[in-house]
Structures are given as C-alpha cells and as structure tokens.
Amino acid sequence: MPKGKIAGSIQETKINLMDKSKQKTVSEFGKERKNYAYVSFDNLYSNTSLYYGTKIYQRGHIKDLDMDRKFILVALDGNDASRTIKLKYKLSDFERGNVNVQENDPIKFYGRVLATDSYLNDKGRDVQLPVIAADFIQTKINRGERYGAI
User: Fold this and answer.
1) pLDDT surpassing 50 at residue 127
2) N or C: lower Cβ tally within 10 Å for the chain?
3) How many CB atoms lie within 10 A of CB 87?
4) Integer Cα distance of 104 and 16 in angstroms
5) How distant is the alpha carbon of residue 61 from its chain centre?
6) How crowded is residue 106: how many other Cβ atoms within 10 Å of its Cβ?
7) Looking at residue 59, what is its pLDDT?
8) Residues 40-53 pLDDT 10s
9) In angstroms, rounded to a whole number, what is the distance separating the alpha carbons of residues 87 and 141?
10) Exposure string (b/e) for 123-133, b if CB count within 10 Å is 16 or more?
11) Does residue 25 carry a pLDDT above 50?
C-alpha cells in the first residue's frame, strides 16, 4: 500500500456498522421465513422466469465469494457444483454475529428470484444460473437438518 494511504474509509465503516445493526438472529427472522417456499434447483433452473419475484429458500455450500461485487456462488443439492446459483447480498442479510464465511461452508438462504446470469465455468463453458437477492443468510447450520426442510 502506498505511503500515506488509508485502507478503507470512515464512510465504509459507517455503512458496515449500519448494515450490521440491521442483522437479525434466526429467531428474529422466524416469523418472516414462513413466507418463503422451497423451490428445487431443477424447477428454478428450468423455469426461472416463472419464479421472478418469488420468495424462496434453499440450502447449499459456498463455491465462490466476490466481496467487491457482493455475490456468492452457492452449490445446491448436497454441494453439487453443476447446480449452482448466484446469491446477491448485503452485509445486513447475514445472520447476526456470523458474517465470516469461506468456500465450502454450508449456508441456508432466503431470498427473491431476480433473473438469470451467465458465467464461464471451470471448463470454459458459458453457464446460465438463477440469481437470487438474499433477504437472510443463515450460516450456523444444524448438520442433522435435511436439505429443503425448515
């Protein structure tokens, strides 16, 4: 880092603190989660346009994080990389007290279907993925809980 440069800014710190203050616990989100329906990856992938704006929930594992553009690639259905969605998020969407996530961490998310997006996969193929705008991201997952169960 060049001499005299400050990493981050006061404005960034204010935004992060404000976003963190809006975070909810799992129990605080409990009433809202009843408004979300489980949608399988197959239905979401094949019929994305039918689900635009629909509140859904799913479980998966983090495949990639892009902290600058605020999205996470999440592999659904038991960590199957061929069943990946793009999850757009804000810091306030994470469960209170647990924002530190890494690749392969299990998560459960609640959000609204936005669109489809494409990216180049590891094999150089253009792949379409459903895009979900997160409303809540649960990072402390009970391992005994089955995929799709609330």
Assistant:
1) yes
2) N
3) 24
4) 24
5) 10
6) 19
7) 92
8) 999 999 989 999 99
9) 17
10) eeeeeebbbbb
11) yes
